[in-house]
Amino acid sequence: MINHLMNNATFSTAINQANNKNTSQVNAKNETIDDKQKTKENVKTSESKVDTIKDAIKNGTYKIDLRGSAEKLAQELLR
Fold first, then answer.
1. What tens digit of pLDDT does each residue of 19-77 get?
2. What is the number of other CB atoms lying within 10 angstroms of the CB of residue 51?
3. Distance between alpha carbon 17 and the CA centroid of its chain, in Å?
4. Distances in whole angstroms, Cα of residue 54 to Cα of each of 38, 51, 57, 65, 70
5. Coil, strand or helix: which one is 27?
6. What secondary structure letter does DSSP report for 24?
7. How far apart are CA 74 and CA 68, in angstroms?
8. How far is CA 39 from CA 26, 29, 34, 35, 42, in A?
9. Listed residue (42, 39, 22, 35) closest to 50, CA to CA
């Protein structure tokens, strides 16, 4: 009986479309969850970088790359 239904082009197409729709919904949900996790990880990384810079400034060990900073500033001004 299942073979008979699967041989029916209309039924088979409807089943395939339903399966594809469900798969795309699951993939979209997974991507949303991944994006949220990546955002949380980025915030944690940013906070740790900020904390590291703050500590270096407090300790007097923070160094500025004058040449690199000047080049980046010049590039921004040229835009």
1. 676 555 555 566 676 776 777 676 667 788 889 989 999 999 988 889 999 999 999 99
2. 10
3. 28
4. 24, 5, 5, 17, 22
5. helix
6. H
7. 10
8. 20, 15, 9, 6, 5
9. 42
* pLDDT per position as a tens digit, 8-25: 777 667 767 776 765 555
pTM of full prediction above 0.90: no
Q: Return d(Cα 78, Cα 73) in angstroms, integer.
A: 9
**Which run of H or E residues covers position 34?**
helix 9-59
Matching residue, tokens 């400034």: 57
For residue 46, which phi and psi values (nearest 5 degrees)? -60, -45
